[in-house]
Amino acid sequence: MSTSSKFVFDQTLDGSALDEAGEVARRAESAGAGAMWVSEVNNDPFLPIVPGALATSTLQLGTSVAIAFARSPMTVAMSAHELQAVSRGRFLLGLGTQVRGHITRRFGMPWSAPAARMADYVGALHAIWRAWLYEEALDYQGEFYQFSLMPPMFRPRPHEFGPPKIMIAGVGPRLVRVAAEFGDGLFVHPFTSPAYFAQQTEPMVIDGLTASARSRSEVVVAGGLLTATGADAETLQQAVEAARRQIAFYASTPAYLPVLAAHGWEALQGELTQLVRDGRWEVLGQAIPDAVLRTFVLVGSPEEVGEQLVDRWAGLLDRVSLLAPKKVDEVSWSQIRTEAGQRMPR
Which of 11, 50, 166, 220 is least surrounded by Cβ atoms within 10 Å, i.e. has the fewest? Predict the structure, then answer.
């Protein structure tokens, strides 16, 4: 399905390390990374883009992902417009929905029909950007969002770099189709597998491309792949246990039951959910068998991870980044990238 015989290798940034963002981005660019992605967990994902952009000249920088429904499209459009300018056209706007409980209870924002709302959100962003970049009248009347007021005083300065590309995170088929139909790219969720990708994700990408009359080369499919690696046995074991806990967290969430179902592991969610209800977070990871761990996580030495990466994902993903609760160090990242490059078909 991929349009390229090679991956673009990206790096991720711990979003809390704002004071280190410029140096991390500089090193990522020097190492040959295609982009630096900033997630949103306990941090603002937009802020580290600024020092990253100022410290580099070719590296793309993006959010992976910003929670769309926690923000108005107008505020996201403004942040993205400014970051596109300061990066001189290198900003990538990655958006995700989160789940209902976080949107309504953590952010206090409305929740409904996430796939349809995301499509409307993207439409609103483009309408706002056209008003700013090309001096069009702002009159967007969508199902969920309406914008019709843009006095000159509040119109940001236009720039020459155009609107940023929009990447949309998707797990379920509806959001995947929205990403392929309305976005410039799809973020495959870290809790996925080639089997689930083939059963659920790829058909919806094709449907979205068909609906938008676009070719596969016009949409980027990116994956942040869960990884447990280390230079020695102790470091690797610590990374494995951290990955088990991460997998257990995802697998206990009802929204991800179809991912387990692709492998016949539906019963595992009931076990994990009960542990969560009992407040037994400390043993959650212990409930993840090795077979489940190794299906969703790249596990081993950097060389072994590079081999697994190509064996599982070559031809499916266009660009990859390595995600780990215990961060993949820069030396291991480089070794994985080298091994994968040597194994990719010519």
Answer: 50
